[in-house]
Amino acid sequence: MIAFPVFFDFGRKRIPCPLDPQHTVVESELALHIKRCPAHRKQEEAEAKAYYRKACNTGSGPEVQLDEAAPGGPDAQGPDPKAGKSAAARLAHACGMGQARFLELAARVVAACEQVCGADEDPVEELLEELEALPGEGVASERSASNRPFSAKHARQQASIVGHLRRLGLLEEAQERAYVEFGAGKGYLGLAVREAAPGAALVLIDRGTFTLPADRVLRKMKARFERLRVDIADFEPRGAPLLLQGSGLGSSGKGPEPSLRPWIALGKHLCG
Ligand SMILES: C[S@@+](CC[C@H](N)C(=O)[O-])C[C@H]1O[C@@H](n2cnc3c(N)ncnc32)[C@H](O)[C@@H]1O
Ligand SMILES: [Zn+2]
């Protein structure tokens, strides 16, 4: 269990705000604070978005049961306590599977990946050259727009994903399609894909807040893109304007209901 510090303020006990433990609140004033807390207002704003539908993607599968004694269980003092219960639950679940079942699952993932992407080594160097030759700033912009040195690792990963999309024909008719990057972080993969698929709509999804250098480049390119701050668990595609096609008059108007345009989901290092 993670223990939060408790402070005393002129004899009044202060506890971490349950909505945002970065600040504390006088315990006896908690109910009042909750109504006024900026985190509460932010949450309300987020929940009012058309692309928010609580837990719409969580499915109906069985819940992962936390084994109290398992490594990473609720009492664990692991290396990253901020990873929170969900990461601890996943770790506990993986440990609880046992080696044989885990290896079987890993083999299924590899087989599925090879079925879709082919077993051959990526011609990554070729793809990297192809990406760097693009007119925009995609991979190269990571070097110029951030203070950290150019990351060859990330560039190779972006090149590989763009190459797979191309090989599978998923960059064709890009103007008709939208690309949705889940766990987009700073958005460089989305930017690289958008540069390889001119005219495409791009939706960047992440529950976190970031500096947004890739968004700046996308704006400069006048790309059709939107960044949505939402947990994937709660993401409702029908509420994302760039994913809709049709008149938009919908049920209240005379026109046909807008439908979803074909969209392609992407992710790189989607974890957290
Ligand atoms: C390791 S970072 C990778 C960022 C970027 N895709 C990259 O490759 O550099 C993982 C990102 O996924 C986001 N993420 C993880 N789980 C998420 C969820 N359930 N909903 C939305 N974003 C999520 C995190 O906020 C984080 O920005
Ligand atoms: Zn608060």
Automatic annotation (TrEMBL):
Q: Does the keyword Transferase apply?
A: yes
Q: What class of enzyme is it?
A: transferase
Q: Which Pfam families match?
A: TRM13, zf-U11-48K
Superkingdom of the organism of origin:
Eukaryota
UniProt keywords (A-Z) are:
Metal-binding, Methyltransferase, S-adenosyl-L-methionine, Transferase, tRNA processing, Zinc, Zinc-finger
Answer yes or no on keyword Transferase.
Answer: yes
Q: Which GO terms describe its biological process?
A: tRNA methylation
What's its job? Answer: tRNA methylase which 2'-O-methylates cytidine(4) in tRNA(Pro) and tRNA(Gly)(GCC), and adenosine(4) in tRNA(His).
- List the protein's name: tRNA:m(4)X modification enzyme TRM13
